[in-house]
Design goal:
Helix content is 73%, strand content 0%. The chain has 334 residues and is mainly α.
Length: 334
Protein backbone atom coordinates (compact mmCIF):
# COMPACT_ATOMS: atom_id res chain seq x y z
CA UNK A 1 0.00 0.00 0.00
CA UNK A 2 3.06 2.22 -0.06
CA UNK A 3 3.30 2.81 3.67
CA UNK A 4 6.79 3.25 5.06
CA UNK A 5 8.15 3.15 8.57
CA UNK A 6 6.11 0.08 9.57
CA UNK A 7 8.37 -1.90 11.87
CA UNK A 8 5.91 -3.38 14.31
CA UNK A 9 2.36 -4.56 14.92
CA UNK A 10 1.45 -1.23 16.51
CA UNK A 11 2.54 0.62 13.37
CA UNK A 12 0.08 -1.44 11.33
CA UNK A 13 -2.68 -0.53 13.77
CA UNK A 14 -1.81 3.16 13.37
CA UNK A 15 -1.83 3.04 9.55
CA UNK A 16 -5.13 1.15 9.39
CA UNK A 17 -7.10 2.60 12.32
CA UNK A 18 -5.21 5.75 13.24
CA UNK A 19 -3.72 6.56 16.67
CA UNK A 20 -6.47 4.65 18.48
CA UNK A 21 -5.61 1.55 16.50
CA UNK A 22 -1.98 1.83 17.54
CA UNK A 23 -2.98 2.20 21.18
CA UNK A 24 -5.32 -0.81 20.94
CA UNK A 25 -2.67 -3.07 19.41
CA UNK A 26 0.03 -1.93 21.83
CA UNK A 27 -2.21 -2.48 24.86
CA UNK A 28 -3.00 -6.01 23.63
CA UNK A 29 0.70 -6.66 23.08
CA UNK A 30 1.50 -5.41 26.57
CA UNK A 31 -1.13 -7.65 28.16
CA UNK A 32 0.00 -10.68 26.16
CA UNK A 33 3.73 -10.17 26.77
CA UNK A 34 3.18 -9.50 30.46
CA UNK A 35 0.94 -12.58 30.55
CA UNK A 36 3.70 -14.72 29.10
CA UNK A 37 6.17 -13.37 31.66
CA UNK A 38 3.67 -14.06 34.43
CA UNK A 39 3.23 -17.63 33.20
CA UNK A 40 7.00 -18.08 33.48
CA UNK A 41 6.89 -17.18 37.17
CA UNK A 42 3.98 -19.58 37.75
CA UNK A 43 6.00 -22.33 36.08
CA UNK A 44 9.10 -21.55 38.13
CA UNK A 45 7.16 -21.55 41.40
CA UNK A 46 5.48 -24.89 40.64
CA UNK A 47 8.72 -26.64 39.74
CA UNK A 48 10.90 -25.23 42.50
CA UNK A 49 8.22 -26.10 45.03
CA UNK A 50 8.16 -29.68 43.77
CA UNK A 51 11.89 -29.86 44.54
CA UNK A 52 11.82 -27.93 47.82
CA UNK A 53 8.49 -28.89 49.36
CA UNK A 54 8.86 -26.63 52.39
CA UNK A 55 9.27 -23.53 50.23
CA UNK A 56 6.08 -21.49 49.84
CA UNK A 57 4.91 -20.18 46.46
CA UNK A 58 5.03 -16.61 47.68
CA UNK A 59 8.63 -16.91 48.83
CA UNK A 60 9.71 -18.50 45.54
CA UNK A 61 7.95 -15.99 43.31
CA UNK A 62 8.96 -12.84 45.16
CA UNK A 63 12.55 -14.05 45.54
CA UNK A 64 12.73 -13.88 41.73
CA UNK A 65 11.90 -10.17 41.75
CA UNK A 66 15.25 -8.53 42.78
CA UNK A 67 17.40 -9.94 39.95
CA UNK A 68 14.61 -9.61 37.38
CA UNK A 69 14.17 -5.98 38.43
CA UNK A 70 17.81 -5.45 37.46
CA UNK A 71 17.65 -7.37 34.18
CA UNK A 72 14.62 -5.42 32.90
CA UNK A 73 16.62 -2.19 33.19
CA UNK A 74 18.55 -2.97 30.00
CA UNK A 75 17.43 -0.69 27.17
CA UNK A 76 19.32 -2.42 24.38
CA UNK A 77 18.14 -5.86 23.31
CA UNK A 78 21.69 -6.78 22.30
CA UNK A 79 22.80 -6.63 25.94
CA UNK A 80 20.30 -9.38 26.72
CA UNK A 81 21.70 -11.74 24.07
CA UNK A 82 24.08 -13.57 26.48
CA UNK A 83 21.16 -14.33 28.80
CA UNK A 84 19.07 -15.44 25.81
CA UNK A 85 21.84 -17.83 24.70
CA UNK A 86 22.05 -19.39 28.16
CA UNK A 87 18.26 -19.70 28.21
CA UNK A 88 18.25 -21.45 24.81
CA UNK A 89 20.87 -23.98 25.92
CA UNK A 90 19.03 -24.67 29.20
CA UNK A 91 15.72 -24.97 27.35
CA UNK A 92 17.15 -27.43 24.83
CA UNK A 93 18.65 -29.57 27.58
CA UNK A 94 15.44 -29.53 29.60
CA UNK A 95 13.10 -30.36 26.70
CA UNK A 96 15.38 -33.14 25.45
CA UNK A 97 15.45 -34.68 28.91
CA UNK A 98 11.65 -34.45 29.21
CA UNK A 99 11.17 -36.34 25.92
CA UNK A 100 13.72 -38.95 27.03
CA UNK A 101 11.94 -39.49 30.34
CA UNK A 102 8.59 -39.71 28.56
CA UNK A 103 9.81 -42.96 27.04
CA UNK A 104 11.63 -44.12 30.16
CA UNK A 105 8.71 -43.74 32.59
CA UNK A 106 5.77 -45.36 30.82
CA UNK A 107 4.02 -46.47 34.02
CA UNK A 108 0.25 -46.01 33.56
CA UNK A 109 -2.52 -48.36 32.47
CA UNK A 110 -4.92 -45.72 31.12
CA UNK A 111 -6.57 -46.11 27.75
CA UNK A 112 -5.10 -43.55 25.37
CA UNK A 113 -7.93 -41.65 23.69
CA UNK A 114 -7.18 -40.26 20.26
CA UNK A 115 -9.72 -37.46 20.71
CA UNK A 116 -11.39 -36.08 23.83
CA UNK A 117 -13.79 -33.30 22.90
CA UNK A 118 -14.40 -32.40 26.55
CA UNK A 119 -11.02 -30.70 26.58
CA UNK A 120 -11.33 -29.04 23.16
CA UNK A 121 -11.62 -25.46 24.45
CA UNK A 122 -8.72 -25.88 26.86
CA UNK A 123 -6.40 -27.50 24.30
CA UNK A 124 -7.26 -24.93 21.61
CA UNK A 125 -6.64 -22.03 24.00
CA UNK A 126 -3.26 -23.38 25.06
CA UNK A 127 -2.30 -23.97 21.41
CA UNK A 128 -3.26 -20.41 20.52
CA UNK A 129 -1.05 -19.28 23.42
CA UNK A 130 1.82 -20.51 21.26
CA UNK A 131 1.26 -17.40 19.12
CA UNK A 132 3.19 -15.47 21.76
CA UNK A 133 5.70 -14.41 19.10
CA UNK A 134 3.12 -12.81 16.79
CA UNK A 135 4.16 -9.33 17.88
CA UNK A 136 7.77 -9.96 16.84
CA UNK A 137 7.10 -11.03 13.24
CA UNK A 138 7.10 -7.53 11.71
CA UNK A 139 10.17 -6.32 13.67
CA UNK A 140 12.04 -9.44 12.51
CA UNK A 141 10.91 -8.94 8.91
CA UNK A 142 11.95 -5.29 8.89
CA UNK A 143 15.45 -6.16 10.16
CA UNK A 144 15.89 -9.14 7.82
CA UNK A 145 18.62 -8.90 5.17
CA UNK A 146 16.52 -10.83 2.66
CA UNK A 147 13.02 -9.47 3.24
CA UNK A 148 11.60 -11.19 0.15
CA UNK A 149 12.65 -14.57 1.48
CA UNK A 150 11.20 -13.95 4.93
CA UNK A 151 7.65 -15.30 4.24
CA UNK A 152 9.06 -18.65 3.08
CA UNK A 153 11.36 -18.84 6.09
CA UNK A 154 8.47 -17.96 8.41
CA UNK A 155 6.34 -20.79 7.02
CA UNK A 156 9.19 -23.27 7.43
CA UNK A 157 9.81 -22.22 11.03
CA UNK A 158 6.11 -22.37 11.96
CA UNK A 159 5.82 -25.82 10.37
CA UNK A 160 8.90 -27.07 12.23
CA UNK A 161 7.75 -25.69 15.59
CA UNK A 162 4.25 -27.14 15.08
CA UNK A 163 5.69 -30.61 14.42
CA UNK A 164 7.97 -30.34 17.46
CA UNK A 165 5.16 -29.22 19.77
CA UNK A 166 2.83 -31.94 18.47
CA UNK A 167 5.47 -34.61 19.04
CA UNK A 168 6.28 -33.23 22.50
CA UNK A 169 2.63 -33.19 23.56
CA UNK A 170 1.90 -36.69 22.24
CA UNK A 171 4.94 -38.13 24.00
CA UNK A 172 3.89 -36.63 27.32
CA UNK A 173 0.31 -37.88 27.09
CA UNK A 174 1.32 -41.37 25.97
CA UNK A 175 3.82 -41.58 28.83
CA UNK A 176 1.62 -40.36 31.68
CA UNK A 177 -1.97 -40.66 30.43
CA UNK A 178 -4.64 -39.13 32.66
CA UNK A 179 -1.97 -38.45 35.29
CA UNK A 180 -0.32 -35.81 33.10
CA UNK A 181 0.23 -32.64 35.11
CA UNK A 182 0.52 -29.06 33.86
CA UNK A 183 3.39 -28.27 33.53
CA UNK A 184 4.55 -31.73 32.50
CA UNK A 185 7.90 -31.31 34.26
CA UNK A 186 6.04 -32.10 37.49
CA UNK A 187 5.52 -35.66 36.19
CA UNK A 188 9.24 -36.36 35.99
CA UNK A 189 10.79 -38.89 38.32
CA UNK A 190 14.25 -40.08 39.26
CA UNK A 191 17.50 -38.34 40.09
CA UNK A 192 17.53 -36.30 36.89
CA UNK A 193 14.08 -34.79 37.47
CA UNK A 194 15.38 -31.95 39.64
CA UNK A 195 18.06 -31.10 37.07
CA UNK A 196 15.52 -30.96 34.25
CA UNK A 197 13.14 -28.79 36.25
CA UNK A 198 15.88 -26.38 37.27
CA UNK A 199 17.14 -26.17 33.67
CA UNK A 200 13.67 -25.25 32.41
CA UNK A 201 13.24 -22.76 35.26
CA UNK A 202 16.56 -21.13 34.38
CA UNK A 203 15.55 -20.90 30.72
CA UNK A 204 12.27 -19.15 31.50
CA UNK A 205 13.83 -16.96 34.18
CA UNK A 206 16.37 -15.57 31.69
CA UNK A 207 13.69 -15.23 29.00
CA UNK A 208 11.53 -13.08 31.30
CA UNK A 209 13.41 -9.78 30.66
CA UNK A 210 13.19 -10.38 26.90
CA UNK A 211 9.42 -10.79 27.11
CA UNK A 212 9.13 -7.66 29.22
CA UNK A 213 11.33 -5.58 26.90
CA UNK A 214 8.50 -4.29 24.63
CA UNK A 215 6.18 -3.99 27.63
CA UNK A 216 8.48 -1.48 29.30
CA UNK A 217 8.86 0.62 26.16
CA UNK A 218 5.14 0.80 25.40
CA UNK A 219 4.02 1.54 28.97
CA UNK A 220 6.67 4.19 29.48
CA UNK A 221 5.51 5.96 26.32
CA UNK A 222 1.93 5.84 27.62
CA UNK A 223 2.46 6.89 31.22
CA UNK A 224 5.75 8.79 31.45
CA UNK A 225 6.36 12.25 30.03
CA UNK A 226 9.51 13.04 28.07
CA UNK A 227 10.96 14.85 31.08
CA UNK A 228 10.66 11.66 33.14
CA UNK A 229 12.29 9.38 30.57
CA UNK A 230 15.97 8.83 29.69
CA UNK A 231 18.21 10.59 28.99
CA UNK A 232 16.63 13.48 30.93
CA UNK A 233 15.75 11.37 33.94
CA UNK A 234 16.38 7.71 34.76
CA UNK A 235 14.82 7.09 38.16
CA UNK A 236 11.13 7.35 37.16
CA UNK A 237 11.73 4.83 34.37
CA UNK A 238 13.71 2.48 36.61
CA UNK A 239 11.10 2.62 39.34
CA UNK A 240 8.35 2.00 36.79
CA UNK A 241 10.10 -1.14 35.52
CA UNK A 242 10.58 -2.47 39.03
CA UNK A 243 6.89 -1.90 39.67
CA UNK A 244 5.97 -3.91 36.55
CA UNK A 245 8.08 -6.86 37.69
CA UNK A 246 6.45 -6.73 41.12
CA UNK A 247 3.01 -6.60 39.48
CA UNK A 248 3.62 -9.70 37.36
CA UNK A 249 4.90 -11.50 40.47
CA UNK A 250 1.74 -10.59 42.37
CA UNK A 251 -0.48 -11.84 39.54
CA UNK A 252 1.56 -15.07 39.36
CA UNK A 253 1.05 -15.63 43.08
CA UNK A 254 -2.68 -14.90 42.82
CA UNK A 255 -3.21 -17.32 39.88
CA UNK A 256 -1.28 -20.49 40.71
CA UNK A 257 -2.57 -22.81 37.97
CA UNK A 258 -0.14 -22.75 35.05
CA UNK A 259 -2.32 -24.50 32.46
CA UNK A 260 -5.49 -22.55 33.20
CA UNK A 261 -3.60 -19.25 33.08
CA UNK A 262 -2.30 -20.19 29.63
CA UNK A 263 -5.88 -20.93 28.61
CA UNK A 264 -6.99 -17.47 29.75
CA UNK A 265 -4.24 -15.60 27.88
CA UNK A 266 -4.58 -17.77 24.78
CA UNK A 267 -8.36 -17.52 24.50
CA UNK A 268 -8.50 -13.77 25.07
CA UNK A 269 -5.52 -11.72 23.92
CA UNK A 270 -3.77 -14.25 21.66
CA UNK A 271 -7.00 -14.91 19.75
CA UNK A 272 -7.39 -11.18 19.19
CA UNK A 273 -3.78 -10.61 18.09
CA UNK A 274 -3.34 -13.80 16.09
CA UNK A 275 -6.66 -14.09 14.27
CA UNK A 276 -9.18 -11.27 14.64
CA UNK A 277 -7.03 -8.16 14.13
CA UNK A 278 -4.95 -9.50 11.18
CA UNK A 279 -8.11 -10.45 9.26
CA UNK A 280 -9.76 -7.13 10.08
CA UNK A 281 -6.66 -5.22 8.94
CA UNK A 282 -6.59 -7.25 5.72
CA UNK A 283 -10.18 -6.33 4.89
CA UNK A 284 -9.68 -2.70 5.93
CA UNK A 285 -6.52 -2.17 3.88
CA UNK A 286 -7.53 -3.83 0.61
CA UNK A 287 -11.27 -3.23 0.78
CA UNK A 288 -14.07 -5.47 -0.38
CA UNK A 289 -13.59 -4.38 -3.99
CA UNK A 290 -9.98 -5.59 -4.23
CA UNK A 291 -10.38 -8.84 -2.30
CA UNK A 292 -11.52 -12.03 -3.97
CA UNK A 293 -14.77 -13.51 -2.76
CA UNK A 294 -13.09 -16.47 -1.08
CA UNK A 295 -10.61 -14.16 0.66
CA UNK A 296 -13.40 -12.01 2.04
CA UNK A 297 -15.36 -15.07 3.20
CA UNK A 298 -12.24 -16.54 4.82
CA UNK A 299 -11.37 -13.33 6.66
CA UNK A 300 -14.94 -12.82 7.83
CA UNK A 301 -15.26 -16.43 8.97
CA UNK A 302 -12.04 -16.25 10.98
CA UNK A 303 -13.20 -13.02 12.65
CA UNK A 304 -16.59 -14.49 13.59
CA UNK A 305 -15.11 -17.77 14.81
CA UNK A 306 -12.39 -15.87 16.67
CA UNK A 307 -14.91 -13.68 18.47
CA UNK A 308 -17.08 -16.67 19.34
CA UNK A 309 -14.23 -18.86 20.53
CA UNK A 310 -12.52 -15.97 22.32
CA UNK A 311 -15.66 -15.24 24.34
CA UNK A 312 -16.36 -18.91 25.16
CA UNK A 313 -12.72 -19.72 25.92
CA UNK A 314 -12.18 -16.67 28.10
CA UNK A 315 -15.34 -17.36 30.10
CA UNK A 316 -14.38 -21.03 30.50
CA UNK A 317 -10.88 -20.06 31.71
CA UNK A 318 -12.26 -17.53 34.21
CA UNK A 319 -14.66 -20.11 35.64
CA UNK A 320 -11.83 -22.63 36.06
CA UNK A 321 -9.61 -20.05 37.75
CA UNK A 322 -12.45 -19.14 40.10
CA UNK A 323 -12.79 -22.83 41.00
CA UNK A 324 -9.11 -22.86 41.89
CA UNK A 325 -9.61 -19.83 44.13
CA UNK A 326 -12.46 -21.56 45.97
CA UNK A 327 -10.27 -24.63 46.57
CA UNK A 328 -7.27 -22.59 47.69
CA UNK A 329 -9.32 -20.75 50.32
CA UNK A 330 -9.25 -23.92 52.44
CA UNK A 331 -5.64 -24.75 51.61
CA UNK A 332 -3.02 -22.96 53.74
CA UNK A 333 -0.08 -21.91 51.63
CA UNK A 334 2.83 -19.47 51.94
Amino acid sequence: MGHTGIKGYGDVGREVMGPRGEVLVNICLVISQAGFATAYLIFIAANVRSIIEKAGRGMIIYSCVPLLALLVQFRDMKKLSPFSLIADVANLMGLSAVIFQDFEYYTHDDDIAAVDFSGLIYVTSVCIYSLEGVGLILPLESSCADREGFPKLLKQVIFGITCLMTFFGICGYVAFGDSTISPISLNLKGESAAFVQLALCLALYLTYPIMMFPVSDVLEDLFLSDSNKPPRSYWPSRSFRVFMVFTTATVAYTLPNFGKFLELVGASICTLLGFILPCYFHIKVFGKAKLKTWELILDSSIIVLGLFFGAIGTWDAILKLMEDDEVSENTPEL
